[in-house]
Amino acid sequence: MGIEFQKRKEQHMQMKIKIAVIVLLTGCLQWGLAQEEGEDIGTETVTVTKAYTPSISDAFKIKSFPVTNDSIELQKKKLKYKIHSIPVASTFTPAKGKATAVKKTPPPELFNSYASFGFGSYANALAEFYTSRPINRDQRLDIGFDHNSSRGNIDGVALDNIFSDSEISGSYSLRDRDYDWGANVGFQHQIYNWYGLPEDIDDPVTINGIDERQQYFMGEAGAYINLEDTYIKSGSFKYRRFWDAVKSGENRVILGGALDFPLGEESLNINLNVDYLNGTFANASLNNPNNDTDIKYSQFQVGINPSLAMLRDDLSLKLGVNFVYGMDTEASEGSFYIYPAVTASYRLVGETVIAYGGIEGQLKQNSYYGFVDENPFVSPTLSVAPTDSQYDAYGGVKGQLLPNLGYNVRISYVAENNRPLFKLNPSNSFRSDDKGYYYGNSFEVFYDDVKTIGFFGELNVDVNRNFTFRLNGSYSSYTTETDNPAWNLPKLEGNLFFDYQIGEKWFLGANLFYVGEREDVATQATLSGIPSDFPATAITLDGYFDANAHVGHRLNNQLSVFLRASNIANNKYQRWANYRVQGFQILGGATYKFDF
Questions:
Q1: pLDDT tens digits for 8-21?
Q2: Residues 6+ apart with CB under 8 A from 394
Q3: In degrees rounded to 5, what are phi and psi of residue 532?
Q4: Could you give the C-alpha distances from 343 to 314, 431, 523, in angstroms and in order?
């Protein structure tokens, strides 16, 4: 029956296809004849008697489950079953799941102490030690020692030119919730020699009779305190004693404090300062033909610096003034000074371009200790007086050109009265002091009023924590009140520094610097004691370039070795007139870190 039904269906479909083809051919023939004859088909009116309601007829498809009409119908047999449970012993114990931990880089092993030793050419030696020991959670004790020395042996130098610099320091600090305070002590010993004899002094008898050795000693103690949640923010105290091997001595006491008062969105800051300095030189100025008087000095300063700090989005502004009373207590003369203290910065383009500027002034306290720190070859016959820095006006632009590239460009104009300049002492053949610093081989301090126009530029590259690079340069133009050159001040200076960490074991770095020409003058003292009457010869010191580098290797977490090279270009330049430096130097050593 199924097969016969399917045949009838196929015949019916074939008959429909034939009728559709005949109708299509007939329509096409009539259309073609009408086009050939060109007759007008005319118009005809059609009257709709019933609204058109389209419908979709069911498409014929084979049913998924066709109705069967079979004479034989199979009957499913019913199944009957039962579940019979049988206990089975099992020793399986499921384990608890664990999340896979992220592999972390182990933190570096830290130590509270280290010691470093090195030795090299010219018998150069260094030794360093430092330890930072916590007494408990809030208290800490730090102790440090630093030594650097050389046997000298500079070619062509007749006098002994060894030097040594040793320093030991200790500090104690305590930190609490509302305050922290600390105290420190230190001691320093230095050995230098006035070995810079002029070329015209070549008599062996004279040279052998010169005692060129000078020694400096320094001891200091200080304390500080910082407070929270109070108008009194901080306080500090420092006492320093400085003396040498020729009966020169200096005392200095500095007291400081800071107050902070909130004023709405702003804050009023008040800094207080008291600075007392006094000292004595047992020897007279080398302008004098006789060493029959001593030199005493005593300076007292008290200052108050109120300032109003304002922050407005991209603008940071500090408006302040510095009131200082300075007194020369040795001469019983005093003066009152008022200095500007205004600084501002504005973010023009986020952190990319930040404009800044300011105008500031101060009464700078000069000291024998400070002069020796800058030039250890000064004579113990100095005049010590403060510098009236009237104003330092500056402006510039800084920021980040790239995330790892920073820059800073600045121009400044500085006006200073009584600025100290280092100048060669006159050669004084009338003197016979205990120490040989009167042969034109030491320096005095010459005070002049100086105006300086300065330009400064700097680039900083910090690619990552393993590589840093810094390049800067400056140019200065000086104008003096006496029309003399700005003695021993270079017009052009440049510096380049970089450090590179190569993997976990190797590290290296270098620093290169250039100092331009400087001017000095050599004079001969006369019995008049008037410097303007002394015969003088101008000296021009050539600019110099110095390159230094170091490389090191970490053998393990505690021990590393290093190698340092100095004055790689072997440029035997003069940092000060008649004072040549050591040539190419190499030094090797090791550093050991440990817990103490």
A1: 555 555 555 555 44
A2: 357, 358, 359, 410, 411, 412, 413
A3: -65, -15
A4: 14, 51, 44
The answer to whether 228 touches 179, Cβ cutoff 8 Å, is yes
pLDDT given at position 44? 45
Buried b (16+ CB within 10 A) or exposed e, 162-171: bbebeeebeb
Strand-strand pairing, 467-480 and 492-502: antiparallel
User: What is each CA distance from 319 to 51, 339, 360, 364, in whole angstroms?
Assistant: 93, 12, 11, 21
* Alpha helices for 153-311 (secondary structure H): 204-208
Which single residue is written with the structure tokens 């009408």? 34
Backbone dihedral angles phi then psi of residue 371, each to the nearest 5 degrees: -65, -40
Asked whether residue 31 carries a pLDDT value surpassing 90, the answer given is no
**CA neighbours closer than 13 Å in the CB half-sphere of residue 470:** 9
Partner residues linked to 165 by β-bridges: 148, 190
Paired strand residues for 412: 394, 454
Residues 6+ positions from 272 with CB-CB distance below 8 Å: 255, 256, 257, 258, 259, 303, 304, 305
Element (H, E) at 29: helix 2-37
CA separation (Å) from 334 to 237, 299, 400, 451, 505? 24, 10, 47, 24, 60
CA 590 from centroid of its chain's CA atoms: 26
Q: State the number of CA atoms in the 13 A half-sphere of 304 facing the CB.
A: 5
Q: pLDDT by residue (tens digit) across 272-283?
A: 999 999 999 999
Collapsing DSSP to helix, strand or coil, 70 comes out as coil
Q: Measured between alpha carbons, how far is 454 from 474 in angstroms, rounded to an integer?
A: 7
Question: Identity (one letter) of the amino acid at 540?
Answer: T
In residues, how long is the chain? 596
Question: What DSSP letter does each residue of 466-529 carry, written as one string?
Answer: TEEEEEEEEEEEEEETTS---TT--SEEEEEEEEEEETTTEEEEEEEEEE--EEEEEEB--TT-
Give the sign of the dihedral formed by CA 59, CA 62, CA 68, CA 69: positive
Q: How far apart are CA 341 and CA 338, in angstroms?
A: 10
Residue 468's identity, in one-letter code, is T
SS3 at position 245: coil
Please report the beta strands in 155-265, taking only residues with DSSP state E, as ranges in sequence order.
163-175, 179-193, 213-227, 232-244, 249-263
Report the chain's terminal Cα–Cα distance, integer Å: 108
Share of the chain above pLDDT 70, in %: 82
Distance (Å, rounded) from C-alpha 197 to C-alpha 81? 123
Ramachandran class of 49: left when φ > 0, alpha when ψ lies in -120 to 50, beta otherwise: alpha
pLDDT at residue 207, rounded to an integer: 93
Whole-number Cα distances in Å, 46 to 27, 30, 43, 54:
20, 21, 10, 19
How does DSSP classify residue 123? G
Per-residue DSSP letter, 488 = T
Residues 6+ apart with CB under 8 A from 131: 112, 113, 142, 143, 144, 596
DSSP state of 482: T
Cα separation, 490 vs 384, in Å, equals: 23
Contact at 8 Å (CB) between 209 and 201? no
Judged by phi (left if over 0) then psi (alpha if -120 to 50, else beta), residue 153 lies in left
From CA 197, how far away is CA 214, in angstroms rounded? 15
The SS3 assignment for 10 reads: helix
